[in-house]
Design brief:
With 449 residues, the chain is an all-alpha fold. 78% of the residues lie in helices and 2% in strands.
Amino acid sequence: MAEPSVEPDHKGIQVRLAWLLPVWLMPGVSRLNAFTYFFCAFIFVSLVTFLNIVQPYILKEILHVPLDMLGRVTGYLNFMQEATALIVMGIVGAMSDRSGRRTMLIIGFLIWTTALILFPLANSLTELYIYRFVIAVGVATASVMVIAIMQDFPQNISRGKWGGFNSFLTSFAILFVLFVLTPLPGVFIGMGFGPEQAGRYTFWVGAGIALLAAIIFRFGFNAGRAVKSTHTKSPFEGFVAGLRAAKSRPGLGLSYISAFAARGDMVVLSAFYSLWFTHAGTEQGIDTATAIAVAGQTMGALILASLLWAPIFGLILDRVNRITGLCIGMILAALGYFVLGSVSDPYNMPVMMGATFILGIGEISVIVVCNALLGQEAPPKIRGAASGVFGLVGTLGILTATLAGGLVFDAFGPGAPFTMMAGVNAVVAVLALLLILSGRHHPVPHSDA
């Protein structure tokens, strides 16, 4: 099925992303708003990546957590993060449909700023858990707003290109963290500061970035609601409305299901990819530091795939029905995870990098199409609530994939979590295909009505 209309709403303006991709913006969205969003997405991904990579430094150098407890403490902190997101996301999304995205986004980043200042000052694990809870509230609030604004700004005809460019840009955010932020502890130590001071100053640089971002959002985004409405709902009622909307819009329900797979994909990749190298390295007499370094080098194939494929798949999505696009994306992801899970030795670099590149194509395809489908299907008046439900289901995917991935890793071997996710993506692909064949899905008009 093709989209019902290929004509943009000329009340909006057209911008060219990277001088190549023409994107139509919704009426009332300016070029400043659009480029502020991309800055927002870049900073959000940077800070999330920064926290995950630098947190072990705080555990080891400031709190002196024993080596045999590092994994357990990290697991508790991550579980707290996702459990908090389960509670916060749906309510925050619905609140933003009343108060406006900008207000909630700034609040999220200000909470995040405060927590990043406090986190390296923790004197005990109890304090650290408290500060990580505060970070979780800030991250969850900001996350839903990034998702919602991403859906608010582009016209339906341009959602694929918009999402493709967004994924292309945020790939550079990871490089920014790896090459600019993560070396900071060593830089501060080289300046004569002790390990504890170096860790604190590194986190405070992150806090400064979050605060600067909040200030830029104040002037770069419009205030108010994305869509005017005379109806007022409580945050809980708005959240329920986001759930109920899936009954009359099967495509929206499918987008929620796709979030479960997409977020599960990402957590399996981040949690078990480098662990696979460490596990295999121990058997081959390779030390942990070398194993992690090799894993990082191999991960470059994933980033390269994202950079090359995201804009191309975005263009494809604007030429096919998005349910069809979801089916294609999930098939590519299932293929990528199956190929990676079939690798016998991660230190066979040509094979591992090739498999990782194939996985990167599938991974980025799923990320781009899930967001494009959500934006197409979510009714504008409850798009914040729908984004909250999308984020909540994604968080359930993270928790499930983390638990199940760990169990199959121990039971069947390091490649098993990736094979498991191949199955999950294949199931979503089948659901998309069944929806297409049923004829029950009718794409919404380009105006997002």
